[in-house]
C-alpha cells in the first residue's frame, strides 16, 4: 500500500485520517482545499514582505502578476486602489469566485462542470493552483466579459490552444475553461459533461452539476498535453480519490471499460494496485 501523507506515515494513522475526511460532507472537503489555497497564497505574500521590507502589502500581492502581462498589473492595481486595505488583501471566498463564473456561463447557455474543485469533492484536499471547468463550448469573449464582474480578466497572453484562461484579480489564480468540442482531450471532457449529476459542491449554496468520480478519474489519468501539476500531485489525486471512494464508491466495471477505450488501462491498474485495497 502506498501512503498518501508520507512514506514514513503509519498506515493506521492514514486510515484514521481518511476516515475523518470521509465522515465530512464533500463540500467541506472542497472548502478545506480552498482555505488551504488561501493560506499558502497569504503565506507567500508574507514571505515577500519579509524579504522585501521596502514594499507594502499591495506590492507584495501583485508581485507575481507580471507573469500574465503588463495589462493585468494595471487592472489589479486600479481595482485594489478602490478597495479598503483589509478588503484588498483578503483572500476571496470560493462562492465569490465560482458563482459569478457559473452564472455567466449559464446565461450564455453553456453547460459546465468543475474539474479541479471536483478532486477534493471526491478525494482529499490539497492546494488548488487553478480553477478549471469543462464546458461544452467556449463562450464568445466579449459576451463572457460583459457578464462577469470586474474581478475577472480575460487573459490575452495565454498561448493559442483549445482552452480559454481568465485570471481572478484578487487571488491572481488562473481560471481555465476547457471545451469538449475541440482539442486532443475533447472526448474526455465530453465524458465529464455527460456524467454530470447535481450535488452540493459549495457550502451554503445551491447544488450544481459535478462530474462522476469515474469520469473525473479517467480525465486525470488520460489527459494529454501540458500538465500544470507535478507527477507527485497527480498520484496524490489518483490515490486520494481511490482511497476515499473505496471499491463501494466506484463503478469499477465502467472505470475499466472507459480506461480500455482510452488506452490507459495499465495506468489504471497501477493506480488501483498502489492503493493496497482489493479492487
Coarse structural class: alpha+beta
The shape is: globular
Largest beta-sheet details = 5 strands, mixed
Number of helices: 13
Could you list some keywords that capture this structure?
globular; 5-stranded mixed β-sheet; 51% helix; alpha+beta; 10% strand; 13 helices; two-stranded antiparallel ribbon; Beta Polymerase, domain 2; 279 residues
Describe the overall structure:
Helix content is 51%, strand content 10%. The mean pLDDT is 86. Helix 10 (213-222) packs antiparallel against helix 11. The protein has 279 residues and is of the alpha+beta class. The chain is built from 13 helices and 7 strands. The strands form 2 sheets. It has a 5-stranded mixed β-sheet. The protein has a single domain (11-275), classed as 2-Layer Sandwich (Beta Polymerase, domain 2), CATH 3.30.460.40.
SSE map:
Layout: H1 11-23, H2 26-51, H3 57-61, H4 70-81, H5 85-88, H6 94-107, E1 112-114, H7 118-122, E2 131-135, H8 141-147, E3 152-154, E4 164-168, E5 173-179, H9 186-194, E6 197-199, E7 208-210, H10 213-222, H11 231-245, H12 252-261, H13 265-275
Parallel strand pairs: 2-5
Antiparallel strand pairs: 1-2, 3-4, 4-5, 6-7
Amino acid at each position: 500500500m502506498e501512503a498518501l501523507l508520507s512514506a514514513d506515515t503509519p498506515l493506521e494513522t492514514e486510515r484514521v485520517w481518511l476516515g475523518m475526511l470521509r465522515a465530512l460532507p464533500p463540500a467541506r472537503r472542497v472548502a478545506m482545499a480552498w482555505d488551504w489555497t488561501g493560506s499558502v497564497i497569504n503565506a507567500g505574500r508574507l514571505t515577500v514582505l519579509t524579504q522585501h521590507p521596502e514594499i507594502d502589502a499591495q506590492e507584495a500581492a501583485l508581485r507575481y502578476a507580471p507573469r500574465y502581462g503588463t495589462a493585468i498589473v494595471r487592472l489589479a492595481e486600479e481595482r485594489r486602489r478602490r478597495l479598503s486595505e483589509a478588503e484588498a488583501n483578503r483572500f476571496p471566498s470560493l462562492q465569490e469566485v465560482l458563482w459569478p463564473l457559473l452564472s455567466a456561463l449559464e446565461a450564455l447557455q453553456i453547460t459546465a462542470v468543475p474539474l479541479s474543485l471536483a478532486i477534493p469533492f471526491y478525494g482529499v484536499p490539497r492546494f488548488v493552483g487553478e480553477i478549471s471547468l469543462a464546458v461544452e463550448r467556449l463562450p464568445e469573449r466579449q459576451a463572457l466579459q460583459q457578464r462577469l464582474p470586474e474581478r475577472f480578466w480575460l487573459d490575452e497572453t495565454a498561448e493559442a490552444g483549445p482552452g480559454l484562461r481568465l485570471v481572478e484579480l484578487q487571488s491572481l489564480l488562473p481560471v481555465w475553461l476547457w471545451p469538449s468540442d475541440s482539442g486532443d482531450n475533447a472526448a474526455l471532457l465530453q465524458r465529464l459533461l455527460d456524467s454530470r449529476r447535481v450535488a452540493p459542491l459549495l457550502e451554503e449554496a445551491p447544488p450544481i452539476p459535478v462530474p462522476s468520480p469515474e469520469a473525473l478519474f479517467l480525465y486525470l489519468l488520460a489527459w494529454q498535453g501540458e500538465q500544470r501539476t507535478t507527477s507527485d500531485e497527480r498520484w496524490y489525486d489518483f490515490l486520494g480519490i481511490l482511497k476515499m471512494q473505496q471499491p463501494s464508491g466506484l463503478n469499477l466495471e465502467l472505470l475499466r471499460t472507459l480506461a480500455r477505450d482510452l488506452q490507459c488501462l495499465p495506468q489504471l491498474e497501477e493506480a488501483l494496485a498502489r492503493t493496497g485495497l482489493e479492487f
